[in-house]
Specification:
Blueprint lengths: L9 H19 L9 H8 L3 H4 L6 H23 L7 H14 L1 H9 L10 H13 L2 H11 L3 H22 L3 H9 L9 H27 L2
Helix pairs in contact: 1-2, 1-4, 4-5, 4-6, 4-7, 4-8, 5-11, 6-9, 8-9, 9-11
């Protein structure tokens, strides 16, 4: 076991948590979520489980932190790349899809966040996670508002629609080896196309619909 000294300062505690997150992230890149335990994370770190429990009570707490970090990175990347909005809908959608493609790791976490990760944490920890999620939205919802000419509530709804669609498409085009093998055994065709093209089409459809609906509402208001 590697030498271990308990963190005493906020900075050292943050360093410990970042090390824990990196270990869990590495494990998730190698195996399904259900095969990751606190014991496995501790082993990857070279710690005892009792030392690991000083910083996180469950692996779900660790994965909540990972989801937040990766979600924030995606949102900040989107806001930076789309700072010039409004722009042609096809260009906007393509950029949104290309940025999202760079954050495929985040989409793996997003797919399991509600069904698995959120099911084994305290109310206090989950509430903090939800507040953090809401707090990171303004830069990207502002981009959507400018692109579509819509208000904050409509932009948030549009963001969530785009967010929830992405993991399913990502996994469709990046199926696990076992899934691909099962499809071949079942005589099903290989997946064709790619994530960016498919997701860009969905994003373009959604932003055009939002912009068109907002324009119609404004015309009705002034009729």
């Amino acid at each position: 076991m590697a030498d271990y000294m308990r963190a005493r300062t906020p900075e050292r505690k943050q360093e410990r948590m970042e090390a824990i997150m990196a270990a869990a992230d590495g494990l998730f890149a190698e195996r399904p979520y259900h095969q990751i335990t606190m014991g496995a994370i501790a082993e990857r770190l070279g710690w005892s489980r009792s030392n690991l429990y000083k910083y996180a009570a469950t692996q779900e707490e660790v994965f909540l932190a990972l989801h937040s970090a990766k979600n924030r990175a995606w949102v900040e990347d989107l806001a930076a790349e789309l700072a010039g909005a409004p722009m042609p809908a096809d260009g906007f959608a393509r950029t949104w899809a290309e940025v999202t493609d760079r954050h495929g790791g985040f989409l793996r976490y997003q797919e399991i966040i509600i069904a698995i990760i959120e099911s084994n944490v305290t109310l206090e920890r989950l509430a903090a996670f939800k507040r953090d999620f809401a707090g990171m939205l303004p830069p990207v919802t502002d981009v959507l508002a400018r692109q579509c000419g819509i208000g904050e509530a409509a932009a948030t709804d549009l963001y969530l629609r785009l967010l929830y669609q992405a993991p399913g498409l990502w996994n469709h085009f990046h199926a696990a080896a076992l899934t691909r093998e099962a499809m071949r055994a079942a005589g099903l065709p290989e997946t064709v196309g790619d994530f960016v093209e498919a997701y860009a089409g969905f994003v373009e459809m959604c932003v055009e619909h939002a912009a068109r609906y907002a324009a119609e509402q404004r015309r009705d208001d002034h009729a």
